Amino acid sequence: MKKYKVYHSEGFDKELKKFDNIFQQRVDKIEDKLVDNPEYGSPLGVRWFR
Questions:
Q1: Among the four residues 1, 7, 27, 32, which has the most C-beta atoms within 10 Å?
Q2: pTM of the predicted protein model
Q3: How do residues 2-46 score in pLDDT, each as one tens digit?
Q4: Are 20 and 28 in contact (CB under 8 A)?
């Protein structure tokens, strides 16, 4: 099965650090799901942007 990559912008990383560890772990879990299935979640305006 093909694996995908999730990229962060510097601004995203900077803002994410402001949140507590529980929220950061939730983001990590969502990213793990996106690596295996890029169609996980709802599209944000266009089909390929989630």
A1: 27
A2: 0.74
A3: 888 999 999 999 999 999 999 999 999 999 998 998 888 887 888
A4: no
Give the three-state DSSP class for 49: coil
As a whole number of angstroms, the distance between CA 28 and CA 7 comes to 12
Tokens of residue 16, six digits: 């994410």
In this prediction, residue 14 carries a pLDDT of 97
Q: How far apart are CA 18 and CA 24, in angstroms?
A: 9
Q: Collapse the DSSP code of 16 into the 3-class scheme (helix H, G, I; strand E, B; otherwise coil) and give the result.
A: helix
Q: What's the rounded Cα separation, in Å, for the pair 24 and 19?
A: 7
